[in-house]
Amino acid sequence: MKNNRVLIVDDDEQALALFRRSLRKHYHVESALTGSEAVRLLDHDDPFGVVVADLRMPEMDGLAVLRHAREIAPETVRILLSGEADVASLESAINSAAVHRFLSKACQPDELRDAVSEAVSHYQLITEEKSLLSSTVSASMRALIDIVAMATPEIFERCIEIRPLVGEIAKEMQLHNAWHCEVASLLCKLGCVAIREASVDAVFGLEQLGPYETAALQDQGHVAADLIGAIPSLSAVAEIVRHQDNAYVSRDPDELAKNEIPVGSRILKAASDYVAHRIRWNDGELALATMELTPDDYDPQIVELLVKSEKLERRYRIEAVGVDNIPQRGFVYEPIKTETGEVVFQRGEELSLTLCQRLNGVLKTRGLQQPLKFFVLNSAQPDESARTAAQVSV
Questions:
Q1: Does 301 lie in the same domain as 170?
Q2: Would you say residue 135 has pLDDT above 70?
Q3: DSSP string, 353-366
Q4: pLDDT tens-digit readout, 178-211
Q5: Whose C-alpha in 74, 157, 233, 256 is 20 to 30 A from the C-alpha of 269?
Q6: Using CB atoms within 10 A of its CB, is residue 117 exposed (0-12), middle (13-18) or buried (19+)?
Q7: In terms of pLDDT, which residue wins out, 346 or 302?
Q8: How confident is the model at residue 124 (pLDDT cuts 50, 70, 90)?
């Protein structure tokens, strides 16, 4: 990318005029007499290919200007002018402003032109390499996403549902590279393409698999991360994917825990589990209640942002009770089974007088495995949550 824009900063008006005359035939030259004026130009104009700044200026010196240029446009090539051989200043320039070249303020016009010409060429090389890398990364990333979409379409559809929530939470947290999180949400199940029996419910923790498939599924995040990490500039995405299943409060001392886990991984875990439970129950409130049954799995700050994003009210909690203490309102959380293991009531069935009467009959004839688990309304008042012991008696 050709960029002939050059900014020269010097508090000496005569020197500034000389520099402009020597460069204006070949470059689009802007000039500033003060550091603050230079900062204004850097902040509000298009990027400069080269910035040349005098070291010694009042209020804001040349190093501060070049540091600012580096912060807002890292590709801009920075040249420092100095009228003295100040070793400490030169070392600071290298360390803090990544100065490309030093010139004596007394340099000849030809020397300045040559230095700026080389700097413009260097800028062009940097930006062309960055553009090539960006297009390569984009194409590689698109290829991986297409592999997931074609090999495991149902799983990819679930990933698409997760992506907006991940993106919204990342933006709410003002993450600098929120796009890393969104890309990770699309590629988080890349490792599942090699697991033949991996149904969408099994992948998202809602269905049991055999021992081999379970072990493969537990390792799929690492497999996916290794594939993604081979692409330049996607190492951060790879680490998000690698740690997507880490519990916030780790049960394994060898695993990352709490804020050691990449924030993108913490967002992805909460969003992924929430969407899976919401689909399972067809209700966001029940999904949240399911997650709050295992609070150590999730970063509490991210759960609060999820609640805010989804406009949830925490209407339910999960409660384990005996058959003589069944709540009047709510839903079955776990399938209710007889003592011999036969399922008589499926998860998600709404509590009612009829269900309680049926439970009473099953209890008397075949017995029930206890405790029973239900979603119970958090907002229920004592008179509303009256127990139905009279309806289910031993």
A1: yes
A2: yes
A3: HHHHHHHHHHHHHT
A4: 999 999 999 999 988 877 666 777 777 667 667 7
A5: 233
A6: middle
A7: 302
A8: confident
Looking at the structure, do residues 206 and 120 belong to the same domain, yes or no? no
pLDDT class for 382, splitting at 50, 70, 90?
A: very low
Q: 221 with 326, same domain?
A: no
Contact criterion met (CB below 8 Å) for 283 and 197: no
Considering the domain architecture, whether residues 84 and 231 belong to the same structural domain is answered as no
DSSP symbol at 95? I
Structural domain including 62 reads 5-128
372 token code pair: 């029973």
Share of the chain above pLDDT 90, in %: 44
* Residues 276, 331 within the same domain: no
What was the pLDDT predicted at 309?
95
User: pLDDT tens digits for 159-175?
Assistant: 999 999 999 999 999 99
Sequence-distant (6+) residues with CB within 8 A of 25 are: none
342/201 Cα distance (integer angstroms): 22
Element (H, E) at 81: strand 77-82
Same domain, yes or no: 11 and 121: yes
Q: Which of 94, 106, 112 is nearest to 50 (CA)?
A: 112
More confident residue, 37 or 232: 37
Q: What is the pLDDT of residue 2?
A: 61
Q: How far apart are CA 108 and CA 126, in angstroms?
A: 27
Residue 144 falls within a domain, yes or no? no
Of 45, 12, 15, the residue nearest 30 (C-alpha): 45
- Using the predicted structure, report yes or no on whether residue 390 has a pLDDT greater than 70: no
d(CA 233, CA 133): 8
Residues 200 and 294 in one domain: yes
Are residues 88 and 117 both part of a single domain?
yes
For residue 149, pLDDT over 60 is answered with yes
Q: Tell the burial category of 90 from Cβ atoms under 10 Å away from its Cβ (0-12, 13-18, 19+).
A: middle
- Domain membership flag for residue 324: yes
CATH code at 18?
Answer: 3.40.50.2300
Which tokens sit at 325?
């203490």
Domain count, the chain: 3
Coil/strand/helix, residue 18: helix
